[in-house]
From TrEMBL:
Gene expressing this chain: menH
InterPro entries from the UniProt entry: AB_hydrolase_1, AB_hydrolase_fold, SHCHC_synthase_MenH
Pfam families named in the record: Abhydrolase_1
Lyase in keyword set: yes
Organism taxonomic ancestry: Bacteria, Pseudomonadati, Balneolota, Balneolia, Balneolales
Protein name (Swiss-Prot/TrEMBL): 2-succinyl-6-hydroxy-2,4-cyclohexadiene-1-carboxylate synthase
GO MF terms, alphabetically ordered: 2-succinyl-6-hydroxy-2,4-cyclohexadiene-1-carboxylate synthase activity
Gene Ontology biological process: menaquinone biosynthetic process
UniProtKB keywords: Lyase, Menaquinone biosynthesis
EC class: lyase
Enzyme Commission number(s) from the entry: 4.2.99.20
The UniProt record lists the keyword Lyase: yes
Domain AB hydrolase-1: 29-262
Source taxon at top rank: Bacteria
Length: 277
């Protein structure tokens, strides 16, 4: 696994842990946002390949990894996290900058690009949902995530067992045992109280959906979905219509494309950045 330069960035009274990879000032930068219960280590197997086209930057999102871990769900609301990320990008002060997000991190990347579109030369979304348009569906999801939060606080290890067994994470490409063990380790090392707050505060049920009428990002967009994740293939086919410069790539993988098929994903990202730099 690659080693990066660790930096702590102070935003609104909270410390965010970042890793900076690559030292080529002639290349653009890529800020990478992980999913729920992950942290920047989940991308460490990708960064060597990505330095062909960019200087990757990974971040532990609020409540995760080495970043501060508030336990109030209000701290994790959409507006607060977007504001933090915009402030962090301005502090990093790297340009041109591309933004990449997976799953929960993809939702945050999408909303951040909507809030500050001119900060990013391109947007890459892996297994991302732009939000639930139906009010009843949003209410059901909020209730589901409250139940998950209770499970996390009551018995975190039992929750992790059920989470890892979700059909969502199966893959037609098979699972890399080394990466699977790394993911399990990352999950187990998270703080349960913070994870419970995060899943409630930044639930898709509390997120305002991005629609054709509300979207305002006109730079290039790369959408990525796993062929075995039919729910998100459909979501991303619909999402492709939201952006004037979007392209959808369906790779042989499940929900975690970056884990199931990292070589193909790395090639897609490198091509996208090279074509749009």
């Amino acid at each position: 696994m690659a080693e990066g330069v660790k930096k702590c960035i102070h935003i609104n009274g909270l410390d965010y842990a970042c890793q900076f990879y690559g030292q080529d000032a002639s290349l653009p930068y890529l800020l990478m946002l992980h999913g729920f219960m992950g942290d920047g280590r989940g991308f460490s197997h990708l960064v060597n390949d990505l330095t062909k086209s960019c200087n990757p930057i990974t971040i532990d999102l609020l409540g995760h990894g080495q970043t501060d871990k508030p336990v109030d769900p209000e701290t994790y609301r959409e507006k607060e996290q977007v504001d933090h990320l915009v402030a962090l990008v301005n502090k990093i002060d790297k340009s041109p900058l591309f933004l990449y997000g997976y799953s929960m991190g993809g939702r945050l990347a999408l909303k951040t690009a909507q809030a500050a579109p001119n900060l990013f030369s391109g947007l890459i979304l892996e297994s991302t949902n732009p939000g639930l348009s139906d009010k009843k569906e949003r209410a059901i999801r909020r209730d589901t995530d409250k139940e998950r939060a209770s499970s996390i606080k009551n018995d975190f290890l039992a929750f992790l067992e059920k989470w890892e067994a979700l059909p969502l994470f199966s893959s037609p490409a098979g699972l890399n045992s080394e990466l699977s063990e790394l993911y399990k380790q990352i999950h187990a090392e998270q703080e349960p109280e913070a994870m419970a707050a995060a899943i409630c505060g930044f639930s898709p049920g509390s997120m305002k959906p991005v629609t054709k009428k509300t979207q305002n990002y006109y730079h290039p967009v790369l959408l990525i979905a796993g062929s075995g994740d039919q729910k998100y293939v459909t979501i991303n086919k619909n999402m492709e219509q939201l952006f004037p410069k979007a392209r959808l790539s369906i790779l042989r993988a499940g929900h975690r494309v970056h884990m199931d098929n990292p070589d193909a994903l790395g090639a897609e990202i490198n091509t996208f950045i090279e074509q749009n730099s």
